[in-house]
Amino acid sequence: MSNQLHQTVVETDVDNDFEKQINVSCLEYLLMELGPLALRITDKLEKYSSSSTRESNGSGNGNDNKQVDDFHYGGVELFQNESLVSNEINNQMLDNFGFQIGKILIEQLIFLKNDGISTKMDEILDIMKIIARDVWKMIYQKQIDNLRTNHRGTFVLIDNSHRLISSMYGPDKHRISGLYLNFSCGVIKGVLNQSAFKANVEADLKSDGSVHYTIVVI
Amino acid sequence: MSSKSYKSLSDDIWKNRVDKINSEVFTLTYGSIVAQLCRDFTYAEVNTQLEKMGYNIGLRLVEEFFAKTGLGRCTSFKDTSEVISKIGFKMFLNITPTVTNWSGDGKQFSLILDDNPLTDFVELPEDNNAANELWYSNVLCGVLRGCLEMVQLDCDVYFVSDVLRGDPITEMRLKLNKFLKDEVPAGEE
């Protein structure tokens, strides 16, 4: 990417407009649970479809397909199921969770802060700034650390420490973090979609723990 | 501890030891999760999924609870009810549900939620099934069940009524089944 533009995201205050407050942990717990939730849903949906095929085959005793419901909730066994974690439906679902939330958040931002933030939405760069600054702060309590663009429709957002992933350790980190990166990508797509832009978004977890989101506007 | 000192403890925690955010993102996020579930499942299954989700949260949330409160064991189930309402709900959702409707044997009580951050701006789908079958805030039942299990209390937690369904109040019921025994984890005897 030649012709890079470096921007340090400017601090703005998006709080204080909404008088009800809650503990930030509530949101974090909820977002962390999205991963297991998606796994359970995927498993259930797969079982619906596979049980109907198995019945028609007349060979279904169910033992071959270990039920996720038998697992101990709260444990990490759910994440050990590799085929489930890398399942396409599952990733699609997290992407979609993010998409819906991104759509709602950007509406809410424009509605609540119409005097606070710049609501100039016709330039894609403005929208990227809103994502990097305001949307990220709403969801992750921190801003994107760096925003780059080649001015030809490709943007790279760099988050030095993803709020949900930075606390993960162990050999499975890469695999599991993928779930939450799908969610983040969904958020970006949701915001862009609501602003009438379509884009491919890919997230890449680097070895130093930072996450690079590459956004290519279609 | 008296209920008055619970209140001052939780006020202090809320004021000084909790990072706070506006509830809107939380409310909206939860809303879109429920909406997504409703697309995929029957309302009964949605209730189950929300409860499971809450249970997982409860298992982890209890750690933060003890880290921030430094509380020891409750002396009675009555004591527990006070702690749940005045400290637990207060330090996470900044609400204090009313404890009421004790059963004669002291093993069941209700929490009345006058204010529920989960349901701000929420309307149930218009079909009658939702109002009859969906417990929108069922995640809270799971959270309480998970937390209580971590302190060796085996409880059933369920909603009895919800203003979202058109009921006059939002009422959660807690029922103590039994005390769980302290168990030494396998291999650590």
UniProtKB/TrEMBL annotation, chain A:
Gene Ontology cellular-component annotations: cis-Golgi network; phagophore assembly site; trans-Golgi network; TRAPPI protein complex; TRAPPII protein complex; TRAPPIII protein complex
InterPro entries membership: NO_sig/Golgi_transp_ligand-bd, TRAPP_component, TRAPPC6/Trs33
GO biological process, one term: protein-containing complex localization
CDD domains: TRAPPC6A_Trs33 (cd14944)
Family: Belongs to the TRAPP small subunits family. BET3 subfamily.
Protein name: Trafficking protein particle complex subunit 6B
Organism annotation: Pachysolen tannophilus NRRL Y-2460
TrEMBL record, chain B:
Localization per record: Endoplasmic reticulum; Golgi apparatus, cis-Golgi network
Family listed: Belongs to the TRAPP small subunits family. BET3 subfamily.
Gene Ontology biological process terms, A to Z: Golgi vesicle transport; macroautophagy
Transmembrane stretches, start-end: none
Protein name: Trafficking protein particle complex subunit BET3
Any Pfam family: TRAPP
GO CC term (a single one): Golgi apparatus
Naturally occurring in which organism (per UniProt): Pachysolen tannophilus NRRL Y-2460
CDD domains: TRAPPC3_bet3
Keywords of this entry: Endoplasmic reticulum, ER-Golgi transport, Golgi apparatus, Transport
